[in-house]
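A quick aside before the break. I want you to see a complete sequence-to-structure record at least once, exactly as it would be stored in a machine-readable document. Don't worry about memorizing anything.
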Amino acid sequence: MRHRLLLIKGCFRCLSCGNEITITQQNKSMVAPTKCDKCSGKRFKLLTDKSEFKDLGPLPLTEQPTLEQLKKELQGSETDIIYEVE
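That is the input. The structure line, written in tokens, reads:
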């Protein structure tokens, strides 16, 4: 599993007039503006330097093998946990 960023507040620039619109994100899918308030433009670019992200990353855990598994020379299973960096 890879390191990920979650968009919290997206700042979008209208490609027609340059107006910037900030949208607070409600879930893990990015929500972009559908129409510019100033020129009714419909194409936007996400400004990553003006947006807010939350850092998510994997934390690998390895299950400890049981005595029976050790006798059979098996290894424990591995699981990734997602954590949030504040």
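Two observations worth writing down. The two ends are 20 Å apart (CA to CA). The first strand starts at residue 4 and ends at 14. We'll return to this after the break.
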